[in-house]
Known about the structure:
Blueprint: H1 8-67, H2 69-104, H3 119-125, E1 126-127, E2 130-131, H4 133-153, H5 160-166, E3 172-174, E4 179-181, H6 183-187, H7 193-230, E5 235-240, E6 244-246, E7 250-258, E8 268-271, E9 274-275, E10 280-281, E11 284-290, E12 295-307, E13 310-323, E14 330-333, E15 338-340, E16 345-350, E17 359-363, E18 367-371, E19 374-378, E20 387-395, E21 400-410, E22 416-419, E23 425-428, H8 430-433, E24 438-441, E25 451-459, E26 466-469, H9 475-482, E27 489-499, E28 513-517
Parallel strand pairs: 6-13, 15-21, 23-28
Antiparallel strand pairs: 1-2, 3-4, 5-7, 7-11, 8-9, 8-12, 10-11, 12-13, 14-16, 16-19, 17-20, 18-19, 20-21, 22-24, 25-26, 25-27, 27-28
Helix pairs in contact: 1-2, 1-7, 2-4, 2-7
Amino acid sequence: MAGGKMNARQKMINLMYLVFIAMLALNMSKEVLSAFGYTNQKLESTNQSTTIKNNRAYDNLSQKAIDEAAQWGEQNEKASKIRKYSNDFYSYLEALKETLFSRSGIEDKSDFVSMDKTDVLDSYFFVGDGYTLEGKEFLENINNYRENLIKELGSNSKFVPSIKNKFNTDDVFNTKDQKKIPFMKARYEGFPMVASLTNFTQIQTDIRSTESDILSNLLGDKLETITQITGNNYKGIVSLNKSSYFVGEQVKGQVVLGRYDSNLVPTKVTLEGKDITDKVENGQVMLDMPAGSVGDKNFKGVITFMQDGKESPIPFESNFKVIAQPKNAVVSADKMNVVYRGLVNPISISLPGVGDKDIKVTVSSGKLKKKGKVYEYTPSNSITVKTVKFTVKARLENQTITSTAEFRVKSMPNAMASVRGQYGLLRLPKSSLVKARIGAGRPSFEFDLKLKVNGFKIKVPGQTTIVVKGTKLSAAAIRAVNRAKDGDVITIFGVDQNIIGNSYDDKKKVLPISIEIVN
Length: 519
């Protein structure tokens, strides 16, 4: 019957059946492409939150290294190297994704269905049976990242198996053909563009998750080490009400026995050889002794507690200073030795041993406002005012003292145009420049000011200057940039900006930025 002739009706039915099958295949292809795209979006969102979390951990570790260098310095140094390796590799992958979009001509990054072509990455990574320079660079980046982490952590680190697995570039065994296929060809040759993009984002996810695991371990291991050293020991902790005392004052404070058991109460306490066990209240030793004469003071004692039926003595020691009553106030700028016109400058004014309510401050010009324990000073906008004098009057028990301090008043330094948060001269491909936002900032300035860019001018060699409104290149500016040659230096200047939340009229020009075109 299969060899018989088909009538016209049967032929039409068969043709419609083939069309139906083709439509099903097409719809499934769209669904698969979209699934890859949505997965890529979710991974990118995850990467953003993980990056923020990791940066907080890096900052936490860095601060610990500043506060306690002996305990955290080595961990912080290791973390800094891992951060650099990770950020370099992550940025490389981000640039690689941008290159794929540029080569494909796809402008809408959410149009996943149009990312079905395989030739975009194939021509970029592969040539004949080998790899292009770009393909070799990609493979080298993965291998370098893996080996750098292992070298930094040590081959015996518990993270090594995971790192080798996530960033493995060994040949892939094909069960169908029963043979090994090179990693690059098995993972990237002949795949739709959207699948490759998702793969690159997944590698970025692996980078950030690896960082997170290592950071947790660096912090946790050090804490565990400290716990192992002191967890079964005791330490006498002295807490004085003040660190400095006037002559004739009483030194007051507490001594507590530090241990992970909050219910522990000492059975005996001695201070400078004297038994002061009766001074123990709720597990704290209440100190009350004369300060003595001017100078550095030191006192020692012993806390005795019972452990396993035996007495265990724990020594404690502390230092404090006894100072004479002050005659001059201490005035210091919180961030610099000058104050800046057009800004609210934080100023600390204090006098040791004198409460804030007994201190009165006046200024020779500008406005001074007290906010909490800090003063906020706004200089005069007049450029003729070059200095300001602070006068501090403090009331002590038996006298009033007056002290003055003078600071220079300066205008803010010039702002600088920026691209991607970089200043001065940088090198970018045209495809990156046309998408970048133009910003402005004062990178070496002590104050963290937020600037709003209202417009700018752009000059491409051999072309007329173009005036742009806003922060992104206009259509005319994009056309001019696209006509630039490799090696051309494009200048962005004449940036119109203002400080967000500040009405001060900054007349200074914004310094330009130069971009050398590389393709």
